[in-house]
From TrEMBL:
This is Holliday junction branch migration complex subunit RuvB. Residues 1-21 are annotated as: Disordered. Its main location: cytoplasm. It comes from the Bacteria. Has 3 domains, the large (RuvB-L) and small ATPase (RuvB-S) domains and the C-terminal head (RuvB-H) domain. The head domain binds DNA, while the ATPase domains jointly bind ATP, ADP or are empty depending on the state of the subunit in the translocation cycle. During a single DNA translocation step the structure of each domain remains the same, but their relative positions change. Residues 186-256 are annotated as: Small ATPAse domain (RuvB-S). The gene is ruvB. It comes from Brachybacterium massiliense. Belongs to the RuvB family. ATP binds at L24, R25, G66, K69, T70, T71, E132, D133, F134, R175, Y185, R222. Keywords: ATP-binding, Cytoplasm, DNA damage, DNA recombination, DNA repair, DNA-binding, Helicase, Hydrolase, Nucleotide-binding.
Length: 347
């Protein structure tokens, strides 16, 4: 089966960036770079299920955007040789939509529920029962005449993905037999991602360029692949056609990706924090308004990497700038009673 036909990234409907992304997805677990712990654990779950000839337990994948959750869901289906159904929390408006999907599942099918934290409550409750008892109550008719008919489902596997595991209610989380948390990739792993992608795209990439791209990709394979394509553009249009260190540096300058991999928005958040809010702490929503972004964007796409790189601190009283943020922006960290050091002492 061709999983791209079922994916949200099919060639006809998807924007070009998405199509380019789909083309670079690893198809098998052994091609999946990095995330060694999750990969090992998952391969055990899958091998055991294959050996028993049964559908594996439900799998939950969590982690920041672009780290490989959708890719892994597709790999799970491929490794099991099982059909894959793809949908997402926001796409399921009513419990009936979920009932229709569940009642049409084939034996052993993998049901990928992206953004599972955004499922509506009634659908979520229906999902608990389906995941645990392999049963769904189908409502027939409307109003007073409506009756509920229990329908047994064949064994299937839910693969849920979420960028916000914390938002998942405990009863739902507990129904997953395996929870894998994806973390940011290190530079060496990203270099491997870039190298493989270049080979797939038949791009000749110099080693120094792949190191440069990897080190500026915010720990994220999706960004690494995107930067690779932008460097290729630059090399073709403004450079010599060679993807060397100069091309990488120049392209990344044009796209305002700095040497730590921070982009314009990352820096806007840090500038607001250090400038307007004097280092904080400041509430997340206030910070989001200051940079003209949604709270969710700041919380899921921007903040995790800034925290991990030691630029931003999450505190009970809000977000605060770490000394590295000031230094990175070329500012002197404040000193004295109002400065960063005593402020940190309070958390
Ligand atoms: N481990 C990996 N090895 C190689 N390429 C990867 C890996 N993980 C992700 N990628 C690449 O990064 C792109 C983004 O990955 P994917 O779509 O799976 O992320 P995601 O976690 O589902 O993100 P989102 O939360 O935004 O849905 C993929 O198209 C794939 O090419
Ligand atoms: Mg995804």
């Amino acid at each position: 089966m061709n999983d791209e036909d079922l994916s949200l990234t099919s060639a006809e409907s998807a924007p070009p960036e998405r199509t380019a992304e789909a083309a670079l997805r690893p198809r098998r677990l052994e091609e999946f770079v990095g995330q060694k712990v999750v990969r090992d654990q998952l391969s055990l779950v899958l091998d055991a299920a294959l050996a028993r000839g049964r559908a594996p337990e439900h799998v939950l994948l969590s982690g920041p955007p672009g780290l490989g959750k959708t890719t892994l869901a597709m790999i799970i289906a491929a490794e099991l040789g099982a059909p894959l159904r793809i949908t997402s929390g926001p796409a399921i408006q009513h419990a009936g939509d979920l009932a229709a999907i569940l009642s049409s599942l084939e034996e052993g099918e993998v049901l990928f529920l992206d953004e599972i934290h955004r499922l509506a409550r009634p659908a979520e409750e229906m999902l608990y029962i389906a995941m645990e008892d392999f049963r769904v109550d189908v409502i027939v008719g409307k109003g007073v005449g409506a009756t509920s008919i229990p329908l047994d489902l064949p064994p299937f596997t839910v693969v849920g993905a979420t960028t916000r595991a914390g938002l998942l209610p405990a009863p739902l989380r507990d129904r997953f037999g395996f929870i894998g948390h994806l973390d940011f990739y290190d530079a060496e792993e990203l270099r491997e991602v870039v190298r493989r992608s270049a080979a797939r795209l038949e791009i000749e990439l110099e080693d120094a360029a792949s190191i440069e791209i990897a080190s500026r990709s915010r720990g994220t394979p999706r960004i690494a692949n995107r930067l690779l394509r932008r460097v290729r553009d630059w090399a073709q249009v403004r450079g010599t056609g060679r993807l060397d260190l100069d091309a990488a540096k120049e392209a990344l300058r044009v796209y305002e990706v700095d040497e730590r991999g921070l982009d314009r928005l990352d820096r806007a958040v840090l500038s607001a924090l250090c400038g307007r809010f004097a280092g904080g702490p400041v509430g997340l929503s206030t910070l989001a308004v200051a940079v003209g972004e949604e709270v969710e964007t700041v919380e899921t796409m921007i903040e995790p990497y800034l925290v991990r790189e030691g630029f931003l601190l999450r505190t009970p009283r809000g977000r605060a700038a770490a000394p590295a943020a000031w230094t990175h922006l070329g500012l002197a960290p404040p000193e004295g009673p109002e400065g960063v050091a005593p402020m940190l002492g309070r958390f």
